[in-house]
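Input sequence (151 aa), recorded before submission:
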Amino acid sequence: MEKIALDFKIKKFEFLSIKELYALLQLRAEVFIVEQDCVYQDIDYKDQDAIHILGYKDDELVAYTRIFKSGLYFDKASIGRVLVKQKERNHAYGYDLMEASIQCIYDFYEEQPIKISAQTYLKKFYNNLGFYEVGKEYLEDGIPHIGMIKS
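Predicted structure, token format:
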């Protein structure tokens, strides 16, 4: 089966439609709360300061991140809430999503480096995108994470 390219929409919070906001919050809950069995406060009042990258396949939201300029989340520009819908992970959409997110940071904020808080089991994935580990592993919402930087 041929990989269908994702259609990315890039929006500031105030330009998200109610339907888009509902879809991204539903997908975040599906992946981070239900699938990962992690009870945490996803709605954190940081979405209003983020730029949202929404990846659609056949008009269905299947991939998502949010990005921040330096000083809003970390001291460096950052990417967070990185996810691909479980049934779509065999298409390597995570790479497309991260490349789009990195490009958005360059385009919107003209910043480098980029910092992420990565789930530890995804280190190799992020290494393949040019990120390297910084600091020690830590628990975030009960899940092992590591800080990573892309220069």
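Checked by second reader. The chain has a mean pLDDT of 96.
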